[in-house]
Amino acid sequence: MNRQAQSAILFVLGAALLHAGLTDLYLRYVKAGLRPLVLAAGVVLIVTAVATAWYEWRADAKRKEHHGEQPQEEGAHHEGAHHERAHEEGAHEEGAHVHREPRVSWLLVLPLFALILVAPPALGSYSAMRTGTALQQAYGYQKLPASGPLRLGLADYAGRAVYEHGKGLTGRPITVTGFVALDHSGAPYLVRMALNCCAADAQPVKIGLTGQVPPVLKPDGWLQVTGTYTAKRTKDAVNGGPIPYLQVTAAKPVPTPSDPYDETWNN
Amino acid sequence: MAVTKAPPQPRDTGEELRPQSPPAPSPAPSRAPDAETRRLDSPLALTLLMLLVVLCQGPIRAALGAPVMQSWMTVFVAVLVQALPFLVLGVLLSAAIAVFVPPSFFARALPSNPVLAVPVAGVAGAVLPGCECASVPVAGALVRRGVTPAAALAFLLSAPAVNPIVLTATAVAFPRNPEMVVARLVGSLLVACAMGWLWLRLGRADLIKAPARHAYEGQGKGAAFWGSVRHDVVHAGGFLVVGAMAAATLKAVVPQTWLRTAAENPVIAVLALAGLAVVLSICSEADAFVAASLTQFSLTARLTFLVVGPMIDLKLFAMQTGTFGRAFALRFAPATLALAIVGSVLTGWVLL
C-alpha cells in the first residue's frame, strides 16, 4: 500500500471515528467516558492523512520540477528533496523485507467496513447467555424513597434483591429496563450488559422474569418491565452466580436506549 | 551531494514488495515513470474494493446476521475503537521521542549500567498513562533512540500495568482487597525487571529487528514527525486488527463454562486465568473489573490474570511482531508468559 492509499485509509478511519464519536454509535462499543479520546484520535488520524498527502504532493512536485530541468540540474538547491526521498525510500526498502508494512496495513479496511457499513449492534442475548452473571455486591446501596413506585437500574435491583434481601423493595411496584434473553429451556431473563471499558469486557447482569410475562418474547428486544420483588432465586447455569427474580405485572417494549450498557461501575 | 545519487537500485522497488518489478538500470531517469505506474495500483485497488463492498452490502449484511457473527463483529469493533485512541497517543509520543528528543537525553536520564537501567526504566513506566497499545510504539521508539533494549523492554512490560490510571481502576474493582493493588504493582515490576535482566543475559541484538526505518535526519521536523505517525498508525494498526480478530474469535467461540471447572484446582486455575488473559486481550485499564467478576477463582489466580494481561496477549503479540519482528516476538512472548505466571504466583503467595 503506498502513501496515498495509506493517507486515504487514515482519513476514512479518522472520519469513521469522528462519526462514531459524534453520534451515539460509539456507545455500542466503548464506555461513554472514552468519547473525548475517540474524537481526538479521529482528529489526529485526519491530520495525519492530510499531512501525509501534503508532504507526498510536495515531494512529488519537487521531483517533477527536478526532472523537468534534468539537463542542468544535479545542482545545489534541488538536492534536498531528492536526498529526502532517497533516504526515505531506501529506508523503506530495507524495512519492507523485514516487516512488510504494506500488506498488514490492508487489514485496516476491515474495521472500516465493520464500522461504516455494518455498524454491529451492542452485545445482546447471545453473549449474555454464554457468559455468567456478573452481579456483585456493591459498596453500599443508596437509600430508597420511603414509599411509592420505584424505577431502578437492572443491576441495582438485582444487587438489592440478592444482597439486601429485598430490603425496602417489598410490596412496591418496581420498573426496570433491559433486553430479553431466553435460556435453553426458553425461560425468559431480562439482561443488561455492564461495561467497564469496551464491549470486549462487557458482562451481563441477569434477572429472571416470572408472573405475567408476555407470551411471546423476542430475544434482544428491549422491555420496560414493571413488577414486584420476589424472594425467588436461581443460579446462573454458566458460573453459578445468583439470579434474582421479578414478579412481572406489566411489560412494554421500548426502543434501545442510547447507551445500551450499564456503566454504573465506572462511577 | 553525491549521496543523492549513490544508493540507487534497491529503492526502486519502493514501498511495495514487488519482486516482479525489474530493477531499474539507471536510477534517475527511470524513477519517475516507474513511480507513476506503481502509484496507481494501491489507491485504485482500494477504491475498487470500497465500491465492491458498498455494492454488495446487502448480501454481506445478511451473511453477518447470525448472532455469533454479530457478537464477533461487535467485540472486534469494540476492541479497535477502544484501542485506537491509545494507539494514537502512543504513536504521537513515539514520534515525538523519535523526532524531538535527542538520543543524548536518554543516555543522561538512564544509568549507563544496563543492569541498573532496567529497574529505572521499569519504574519510569508509571508515567505513561494508558494501556498496552500505547507502550509498544513508545518502546520501539526508545530502542531506535539508542536506549538499551533490556531497559526498553522493561518499560514495555511495566508501563501498561503500573501507571496510576490502571492502579486506580484496580483499587476500584477490588474495594475489599486493597492488597491487590500492591500485589499488582509489585508483581508487574518484578516480572518486568526480570524480563529485562533475562534479556541482558540471553538476548541477542540481532533478535530485535534492526531499526530499519525512515532516517529522519535530512527531512524537516514536520515531515519526519508526521511520517513517523503515519507509519506507526498504519503499521501497528494493521497488527492491532489481527489481534482484535483473534480476541473476538476466541471470545465468541470459547464457552465460559470451561472456566468453572478450571477454578476448582488451584494450579489449573492459575494457568487457566493466564490463558484467559492472553486470549481476551482486554485493555489493562479494564481488566481489573473482569478479574473482580471471576469470583470463583482464588485471588492469586486473579493476580496472575492482572499481571499477564498487560504484558502479553494476542493483540500485544501481534503488535510486538510488527514492531520488533517475528523472531523476537516468538521468543519474547513465551518467556514473558512463563515469567509472569511465576512472578505473580510468588507475589500472590507472599502478599495475598
- The total of helices of chain B stands at 16
Oligomer: heterodimer
CATH class of the largest domain in chain A: Mainly Beta
CA distance, first residue to last residue of chain B: 65 Å
Average pLDDT for all residues of chain A: 83
CATH topology of the largest domain in chain A: OB fold (Dihydrolipoamide Acetyltransferase, E2P)
The percentage of residues in β strands of chain A lies in 15-25%
Low-confidence blocks of residues of chain B: 1-39
Domain count of chain B: the total is 1
Sheet of most strands of chain B: none
Find the count of extended strands of chain B (DSSP E, 2+ residues).
0
Q: Catalogue the unreliable spans of chain A.
A: 70-101
Give a quick account of the main beta sheet of chain A: strands, pairing sense, barrel closure.
Answer: 5 strands, mixed, barrel
Number of alpha- plus pi-helical segments of chain A: 7
N- and C-termini, Cα separation of chain A: 43 Å
Strand order of the largest sheet of chain A: 2-3-4-6-5
Task: List strands and helices in order, with pairings.
The complex is a heterodimer of chains A (267) and B (352).
Chain A: H1 3-22, H2 35-68, H3 79-99, H4 101-105, H5 109-118, H6 125-130, E1 150-151, H7 154-163, E2 174-182, E3 188-194, E4 203-211, E5 222-235, E6 242-253
Parallel strand pairs in A: 1-2, 4-6
Antiparallel strand pairs in A: 2-3, 2-5, 3-4, 5-6
Chain B: H1 27-55, H2 57-63, H3 67-100, H4 103-109, H5 114-124, H6 132-144, H7 149-162, H8 164-173, H9 179-202, H10 221-253, H11 257-262, H12 266-280, H13 287-293, H14 299-311, H15 314-324, H16 326-351
Helix pairs in contact in B: 3-6, 3-10, 5-7, 5-9, 6-7, 6-15, 7-9, 7-14, 8-9, 8-13, 9-14, 9-16, 10-15, 12-14, 13-14, 14-16, 15-16
GO cellular component, one term (chain B): plasma membrane
Family (chain B): Belongs to the UPF0718 family.
Subcellular location (chain B): Cell membrane
